[in-house]
Fold each of these.
Amino acid sequence: MSKEYKGYRDLIVYQKSYTAALGIYELSKTFPAEEKYSLTDQIRRSSRSVPANIAEGWRKRKYPKMFVSKLIDCSGEASETEVWLDFSKDLKYITEDKYLSFSEVYEEINKMLFSMINRPEKFTH
């Protein structure tokens, strides 16, 4: 490994995805009550799955294929979160500014994940 990571919490992608999930949680508190068991639940679940899968993948990094598989799962969850953000904007539950802000964060998260997917040897052992 070129850089020594003590744990998944040291990964910038984990930090960004965890912070984004907290932001999504706060943002979704303003969604209409009728969305509680649909959009609110879905966006919270998918956003939380990103850092959770990073943590799970970190524990499997001894096996590069398993590590990469979990990172691909992370990217899928990040992309799902982007779809729920699209719905949130189009249904006028969030402002365009909030939408753009979160969209930029998730685009950056996906870029970081794909960098890791393409170079797993930097993280595995």
Amino acid sequence: MGKEIGGKRPTTLITDGAANFQNAYLNEFYTSEKLARTRRIQEIQLAGCAHNNKMEPMNAEIRDRGKVTRTFKKMDTPILTGVQISHNYIRPHMALDGKAPSEVA
């Protein structure tokens, strides 16, 4: 989906340690042309310099919403925008001492 939205191959893909990402990377982004190849960074630890830990809570919220609605019917659904607004402006986060990210920013 990211390739289609961006209109080009990403230069870097950051993933966690889930095994399914290796197959997806090979199927979607790997090429024998070394200069055109998408670089994959796989960070499992919180102490790493590049990881996706900040996105995981948002991914979980989107997954939960998808279960309730029994999947998304189209990619540009306003439900995703609503989840983003709720996550960033309304919902308190434990890691932010009960504040929303917009309050902290």
Amino acid sequence: MTAPVTDLASGLPPATVEDRPRPRRRGLVSDTSFAYRMLAPALLVVGGVLLFPLAYSLWTSLNKVSTADLSMQFAGLDNYRRMFANPLFVTSLLNTLYFAVLTIVGTVGLGLLIALVLNERFVGRRALRTVVIIPWAISQVLVGIVWSWMFNGSFGVVNAGLQGAGVIDSYHGWLSDPSVSMLVVAIAYIWSSVPFAVLMYLTALQRIPAELYKAARIDGADALRSFRYVTMPALRYTTLVVLVVASLEGLLAFSLIYVMTGGGPGTTTSVLAWLGYQTTFVSLDLGVGAAIFYFLVVVLMVVTGAYIRLLRAPGREPGR
């Protein structure tokens, strides 16, 4: 049996390859530094596309812009003062909130209901899931045109169906009626946005472990209590995501209103996005128009921040 080899100077066993310090290679960077270098071009593009327009629009909202040569004269907060002094601003703000509430409730409620139905097993379920996605793939402009035809006061299929069923006596101009015009636009928007909510909820429902429902039945819970104590807690984060998207799109609604009503009749469907468009591109008041849009950005930031606080609230998703 051979004796272990020892270091002649110290009398200790020689260091293994793993114990010896590795020489530092020159020219190599850490993983974090390498990642930032690789992302730098994309970050520059994103910064140029997003940050520059935001900064430029903020600067525009603080200046009086000449439409002749687009020269700017610093005006401070005067554009914001004029924005708040505009009587249409309060009307548009209230219309925006009203439209957002209608679309949020409709999108979340119908999206959850349809997802619960599609989560069950029945003949034709896959085909129905495919059909549900179709409205989401159609552009907002085309949705507005189709629904304008459907609610047309002269030849719309809605009037034909209601008159045929005996609900109304004669054709009604839905989009020209101040009492229902906003509701009609909201219905068209909900029809196009519900598929997103359905897909989100359906994905979340399929991730809930079946053992949770079995345990609930063993404890004596009926279908309603299982939905309340198992399904709804599991959909908490999904609901918040759907709420964020529906809120942002509802507050920024423009395309459908532009196509279906043009802000009318009167100012019934005039929302902040429409008022900003009118002020900027029709009245050519670029400073006040930028102020309106920036006010809308602040509203969106407040709403998004509120949802993020809810998302960070204590609690975990069942089954995770």
